Amino acid sequence: MFDLGFWELLLIGTIALLVIGPERLPEVARTVGGWVGKLRRYVSSVRSDIDRELRTEELRKMMESQQSELNNLRQRLEKTPEELDQDAGGDGSQYAVRARDDGGSAAAGEESSSGEAAGTEEAPRADRTEPADRPATGERKGE
């Protein structure tokens, strides 16, 4: 608001003392102080409302941009395997769904050239095993 220094306040106080008088000056100062406090609270409230609206608008814009990106990704994911294959230039056979019957044998046409059934099971990896002299994760020696 206004930039009032010491000398300006002293001049205003002296003039108020001369015009209003020493009897009514404390009452007037209290009243003016109350008005100034209400004015500051009102200005603070308006400022916070404006800041809140600006943040809300920024969040709304960000949400709309994220939503448009999600919609774009959703459209890309909804392409059928045939459309993906056409985009890639293949015949679509690599996207064929492979199913196993109850016996665990591979369905027709699922065998690889070496005669093994194509499965989804992952082979055990050597880096997942613990050496015999080292305790497994979560265990301590001597317990």
From TrEMBL:
Compositional bias segments (type: Polar residues): 64-74
Keyword Nucleotidyltransferase: no
Membrane topology: Single-pass membrane protein
Pfam families named among the record's database cross-references: TatA_B_E
GO biological process annotation, one example: protein transport by the Tat complex
Region (Disordered): 63-143
Key words, A-Z: Cell membrane, Membrane, Protein transport, Translocation, Transmembrane, Transmembrane helix, Transport
Biased composition (Low complexity): 104-121
Ranges of compositional bias, category Basic and acidic residues: 122-143
Primary location recorded for the protein, binned into one broad class: membrane
Gene Ontology MF: a single term: protein transmembrane transporter activity
Location within or outside the cell: Cell membrane; Membrane
Record's GO cellular component terms: TAT protein transport complex
Superkingdom, natural source: Bacteria
Keyword rRNA-binding annotated: no
Quaternary structure note: The Tat system comprises two distinct complexes: a TatABC complex, containing multiple copies of TatA, TatB and TatC subunits, and a separate TatA complex, containing only TatA subunits. Substrates initially bind to the TatABC complex, which probably triggers association of the separate TatA complex to form the active translocon.
Role of this protein: Part of the twin-arginine translocation (Tat) system that transports large folded proteins containing a characteristic twin-arginine motif in their signal peptide across membranes. Together with TatC, TatB is part of a receptor directly interacting with Tat signal peptides. TatB may form an oligomeric binding site that transiently accommodates folded Tat precursor proteins before their translocation.
Family to which the UniProt record says this protein belongs: Belongs to the TatB family.
HAMAP family listed in its UniProt record: TatB
Protein name: Sec-independent protein translocase protein TatB
Organism, as annotated: Thiohalospira halophila DSM 15071
Gene giving rise to this polypeptide: tatB
